[in-house]
């Protein structure tokens, strides 16, 4: 970085309009007292908590996952048969 840029960065000129972005950001934080806080609290507790809303978004996902895993295990251990033949992959040997 050039020394002239460093000097310019230290001495920022005030805005022509008088608008100070740093003061604006500092003042736009969370208010000390929110009059609607108690009225909004029900949205994030009990039935409407984040976890319960997530679960309601995917009904039956847990049961479906367990059923699919069970089927995959059954197929892997008990269905050893013709469905694993090499002809489907083009590896059949012709004599």
Automatic annotation (TrEMBL):
It comes from the Eukaryota. Keywords: Electron transport, Membrane, Mitochondrion, Mitochondrion inner membrane, Respiratory chain, Transmembrane, Transmembrane helix, Transport. It is found in: Mitochondrion inner membrane. GO terms for cellular component: mitochondrial inner membrane. It is a single-pass membrane protein. Its main location: mitochondrion. GO terms for biological process: electron transport chain; mitochondrial respiratory chain complex I assembly. Pfam families: NDUF_B12. Belongs to the complex I NDUFB3 subunit family. Accessory subunit of the mitochondrial membrane respiratory chain NADH dehydrogenase (Complex I), that is believed not to be involved in catalysis. Complex I functions in the transfer of electrons from NADH to the respiratory chain. The immediate electron acceptor for the enzyme is believed to be ubiquinone. This is NADH-ubiquinone oxidoreductase B12 subunit. It comes from Podospora didyma. The lineage of its organism: Eukaryota, Fungi, Dikarya, Ascomycota, Pezizomycotina.
């Amino acid at each position: 970085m050039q020394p002239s840029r460093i000097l310019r960065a230290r001495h920022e000129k005030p805005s022509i309009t008088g608008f100070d972005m740093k003061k604006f950001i500092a003042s736009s934080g969370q208010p000390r007292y929110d009059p609607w806080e108690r009225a909004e609290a029900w949205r994030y507790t009990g039935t409407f908590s984040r976890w319960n809303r997530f679960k309601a978004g995917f009904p039956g996902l847990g049961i479906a996952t367990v059923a699919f895993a069970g089927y995959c295990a059954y197929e892997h251990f008990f269905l050893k048969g013709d469905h694993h033949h090499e002809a489907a992959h083009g590896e059949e040997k012709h004599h």
